[in-house]
């Protein structure tokens, strides 16, 4: 029997794309599917997003772009990360568009000049003189608050001479949803595509549906007597007779070690994760004895990545991107709900 099951709902991807497109109006939606689609499966998500109206795909590495090119021969694909010297020829042959962060623009590759408007990462301070291979100007927002307005003012200044001639894009999911002036010609939407909140809130507030559902089961149920513990370091010691259930999923599967204290669903009821999460299992506190095999929902059905992220002191991006869909540890299903 498998340890856990990851279900990807492509119907939800399509609905999220349609939701974003309704907000963006005439601005194109470019689907960000880097890191294997934030752990959801880049090829499957890309297909659903394109079918629902996305205009392009965005990744970070040349290998990600080349993998997608094999499945989507005619789709616009932008590689947003810097290329290694040995990747230029392959990217050119595959008609992959690239982000250029310095003054040197490789010949024969459709390029987007990336300007740094305040993110402080990859990008140039000014727009170098565009060559015939330059098709776009882009930047990256560091926030979705007042600082974003400063970045947008800078981007407007840098792109003004080229508007109408080059594709200009700076909007993230958060900006696409909340900052109309950031939308320009295209919006690069990642986290919202997967039905996750770009601002740690309930994604339903933005009309989004989580795409991923992760389930497992109780592999053992036992009664701890007073003074008995579960897990490494004896972090949970029973103060009274306590039923616990052991779930065969741990940090090697992507259920992080710092998720102690979060909640999952056991047979549809919320239960607290207790004790130290190990590489291959964790414990939940139960109200009563339950049979082995009782279903456990780790994500989905109201268990939100945003809630797990709050417990772990991180963001929902990291929660889903860290999931392991290795078939030796989990079964991955794709559905059209």
Could you provide a short overview of the structure?
By secondary structure, the chain is an alpha/beta fold. 24% of the residues lie in helices and 26% in strands. The protein is elongated, with a radius of gyration of 23 Å.
Any overview of this molecule?
The protein is of the alpha/beta class. It has 2 domains: 190 residues, Alpha-Beta Barrel (TIM Barrel); 124 residues, Lyase, Ornithine Decarboxylase, Chain A, domain 1 (Beta Barrel). Helix content is 24%, strand content 26%. A 9-stranded mixed beta sheet has the order 11-14-17-16-15-18-10-1-19. A hairpin with a 5-residue loop joins strand 12 and strand 13. Helix 1 crosses helix 3. The mean pLDDT is 95.
Helix content: 10-25%
| CATH uppermost class of the largest domain | Alpha Beta
Query: What is the 3D shape?
Result: elongated
Number of strands: 19
CATH architectural type of the largest domain: Alpha-Beta Barrel
How many angstroms separate the termini? 25 Å
SSE series: EHEHHEHEHEEEHEHEEEEEEEEEEHHE
Name given to the CATH homologous superfamily of the largest domain: Alanine racemase
Backbone structural class: alpha/beta
CATH fold category name of the largest domain:
TIM Barrel
Task: State mean pLDDT (0 to 100 scale).
Answer: 95
Uncertain stretches of 5 or more adjacent residues = none
Q: What share of the residues does DSSP label as strand, in percent?
A: 25-35%
Strand order of the largest sheet: 11-14-17-16-15-18-10-1-19
* Rg (C-alpha, Å): 23 Å
Largest sheet: 9 strands, mixed
Per DSSP, the total helix count is 9
Summed up, the domain count is 2
């Amino acid at each position: 029997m498998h340890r856990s099951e990851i279900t990807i709902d492509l119907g939800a991807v399509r609905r999220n794309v349609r939701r974003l497109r309704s907000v963006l109006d005439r601005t194109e939606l470019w689907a960000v599917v880097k890191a294997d689609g934030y752990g959801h499966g880049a090829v499957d998500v890309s297909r659903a997003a394109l079918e629902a109206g996305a205009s392009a795909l965005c990744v970070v590495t040349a290998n990600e772009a080349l993998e997608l090119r094999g499945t989507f021969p005619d789709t616009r694909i932008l590689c947003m990360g810097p290329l290694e010297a040995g990747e230029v020829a392959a990217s050119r042959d595959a008609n992959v568009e690239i982000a250029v962060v310095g003054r040197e623009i490789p010949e024969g590759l459709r390029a987007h000049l990336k300007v740094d408007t305040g993110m402080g990462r990859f990008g140039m301070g000014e727009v170098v003189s565009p060559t015939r291979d330059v098709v776009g100007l882009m930047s990256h927002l560091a926030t979705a608050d007042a600082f974003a307005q400063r970045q947008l003012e800078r981007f407007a200044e840098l792109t003004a001479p080229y508007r109408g001639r080059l594709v200009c894009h700076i909007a993230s999911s958060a900006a696409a949803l909340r900052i109309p002036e950031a939308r320009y010609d295209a919006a690069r939407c990642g986290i919202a595509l997967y039905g996750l909140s770009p601002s740690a809130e309930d994604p339903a507030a933005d009309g989004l549906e989580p795409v991923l559902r992760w389930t497992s089961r109780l592999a053992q149920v036992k009664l701890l007597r007073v003074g008995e513990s579960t897990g490494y370091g004896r972090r949970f010691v029973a103060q009274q007779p306590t039923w616990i259930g052991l779930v065969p999923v741990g940090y090697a599967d992507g259920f992080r070690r710092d998720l102690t204290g979060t909640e999952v669903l056991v047979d549809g009821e919320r239960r607290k994760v207790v004790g130290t999460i190990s590489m291959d299992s964790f414990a939940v506190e139960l109200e009563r004895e339950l049979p082995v095999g009782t279903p456990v929902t780790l994500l989905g059905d109201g268990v939100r990545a945003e809630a797990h992220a709050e417990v772990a002191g991180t963001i929902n991006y990291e929660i889903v991107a860290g999931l392991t869909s290795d078939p030796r540890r989990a079964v991955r299903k794709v559905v059209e709900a």
